[in-house]
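Subject: complex prediction, re-run

Hi both,

The earlier run crashed halfway through, so I resubmitted it with identical inputs.
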Amino acid sequence: MAQSYSSSVNYFESVNKVVYEGKDSTNPLAFKYYNSQEVIGGKTMKEHLRFSIAYWHTFTADGTDVFGAATMQRPWDHYKGMDLAKARVDAAFEMFEKLDAPFFAFHDRDVAPEGSTLKETNQNLDIIVGMIKEYMRNSNVKLLWNTANMFTNPRFVHGAATSCNADVFAYAAAQVKKGLETAKELGAENYVFWGGREGYETLLNTDLKLELDNLARFMHMAVDYAKEIGYTGQFLIEPKPKEPTTHQYDTDAATTIAFLKQYGLDNHFKLNLEANHATLAGHTFEHELRMARVHGLLGSVDANQGDPLLGWDTDEFPTDLYSTTLAMYEILQNGGLGSGGLNFDAKVRRSSFEPDDLIYSHVAGMDAFARGLRVAHKLIEDRVFDDVIQHRYRSFTEGIGLEITEGRANFHTLEQYALNNKAIKNESGRQERLKAILNQYILEV
Ligand code: XLS
Ligand code: CA
Ligand code: CA
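This time it finished cleanly. Structure:
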C-alpha cells in the first residue's frame, strides 16, 4: 500500500553538505577540484560553471533499459501519483542544497504526472510548480531551463510539431504554451526545445518540406507567445542526429543553425549543445561548441559524455578531462554562456543503483569540469593555441592573403598571382606537438 505523503523526510541522510577539500582528499563526498568561491580570471568557479542538475535522470529515472526492469529503488518510490511527485521535489531540493547546485532543469512530465485530460494534466503541473516555487523562495537554486516532454506519450508517435496529424500539432502547442507560462512563473533563465520525435523514419511516407515548415511555424508561435506574456528567458534548441527517430531534423549545430537562419529564427534562439549528441553526430563536443560559438549562437551545454564503444546515447557523467578542458576552452573563448549553464544531462549507470551514487556522480562531473576550467583558463592566458593559430594563418595578414580577406581579390588577380608564384611552401601543422603540450597542461596546471 502506498504511504500517505509526508514532507519531513531526509532522503540523503548519510550525506552531509559536500564541501571542497582539495586534491589530496580521499573523501568521496568532497570536491577535489571544484572550489566554488575560488576566483579564476575574475569570476568564481561557481559563476563560470553554472552547474545544473537534471531532474529526469536524477529523481525520475529508475534504471529501466530495453532489456531489463528498474534496478533503482529510490527512498521516495513507495509513493504513487501526485504524492510521488511531491516527494521527488523534497528529494530534489535536499540534494540541490547538499551539492550547493545553483541550477536545475526539468521536463513538464518529470515533475508532475499526466492526468486523464489535458486540463487535469495542467492542474497537476500547477500544484507541483507551486510547490517548486515555494522551495525556490527559500533557497538559492534557480531554474536553468524547463522544457516540454513531447516524446514519451504515444500521441507523439509521428512527432509533435512535425506530426502528420494537425491535432497533435495543436496538443503540442498547448503543452509548450503551458511550458512558457511555467518558465515565466519560475523565472527560468532559458526555455529548451529538444525535438525528441521531430524527425522521420522513411521518406516513403514523409512530407519533409511541410514538416520543416511546420516546425518553424511552431517555433515562431512560441516566440510570439513568450513576447505576449512577457517571458524574457533565452530560447534554446538542442541538436541530436538520431534516437529516437532515424533522421532528427536538428541533426547537429550546423544543420540547426541553417534551419534557424532559413526560417528567420536565429535572432530568437541559441543552441543547447550536448556532448553525447555531438559524438552521435560524428563530431567532437568541442566541434559543436566551436561551430555555435563562431556563429554567435552558443547558448548552453548539456554536460555528459557517451561511450565510443557503444555508439548510442548513454548520457554518462562527464569524467573525460580532455573533453571537459576543450569544452571549457570554447566556453571561456565565448565569454561564458550568458544565461546558459552546464546541465548534467547525465545518468548513473544501471548498476550504480544506490542513492549515494547520485551524489558521487555529480561530484565526479563537477570536479572534472572544474579541472577543465582551470586548464582551459591557463591555456588561454598563455596563448598556447591562439599564438599557434595566429602564426599558422599569418599569410592572410599581408600581401595576397590580405587582399583576399579584405575583399580586394578576384579570380583574375588570383590567377595572375598564382601564375607568377613559382614555389608554394607549406609548413607542418604540428598536431602531435600540440597534443603533447595539452597533456602537459592537463597534468601540471
Ligand atoms: C535526449 C535529450 C533530452 C533533452 C531535453 O536525448 O538530451 O533529455 O535534453 O528534452
Ligand atoms: Ca540533453
Ligand atoms: Ca542525451
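The longest strand covers residues 142-147.

- K.
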